[in-house]
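Protocol step 4 of 5: obtain the predicted structure for the target chain.
Materials: sequence only (see below). No template structures provided, no constraints applied. The aim of this step is simply to have a reference model before the mutagenesis design in step 5. Sequence pasted as it appears in the construct record:
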Amino acid sequence: MKLIEFIIPTRTFFIKITAYSFLILFCTACSTSIQKMSAPLSPFDDLYYSPNLEKWRKQVSVYNNFELQVLAAAVLVVPEMEEQYKIRLRRLQSEFAQSNPYIITSQDSISIVIDLFAKTKPFMDLTDQSLWHLTLSIDDTVIAAPHRIVAFSRNELLAPFFPLSSQWSRYYIVIFKLPYQILKGKDVKSFFSKQENTPHLPQSENRTILFSMNSGEAKLHFSWSR
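Step 4 output (structure tokens):
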């Protein structure tokens, strides 16, 4: 009789433990799901993300006889844009989500996220230097050509953060090997004094940054004030 009395409470105890374990797992799953969906799917609907996106995203279109030839958007990745990108990434995926290594503003790199549509198919390839000439200018002084142009074959990797201008557009990230400080007008003189044959840049805290994409199909210019 005593053995039976011992078995019954023990069995009841294990049933309770199992039930509690399932409850904890269920709540954790719910919490994770809620956390992932805490950011709207459209970046323009994200109240935290959209102000920076709208500030640093510029869109340009070129028409010929009322027919669209080229449509493109460019996002200058400044530190606050990079930070909001990483925050939105964690909100959409998880706390441990890995950010794209090219969407950065570092000591020696400036990146611009491009989405491009061209009516003439060859001009969809922004990496073709025989078709496209890309430059970065600051205060009307051309100072750099791209160090690297990264093409993306999977639009879904960037679309939640940098909305496409059209469903036919293709993503690129253009990277310039330049210190980010030059965008702010700080330490420019000391940097360029070490470079030979480099044009002088006015010393100013406010700068106009111009990114140009020129081809036989179109001339596109994206301008930001920093």
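Step 4 remarks: The domain at 43-225 is CATH 2.60.40.10 (Immunoglobulin-like). Residues 2-36 form the longest helix (35 residues).
Proceed to step 5.
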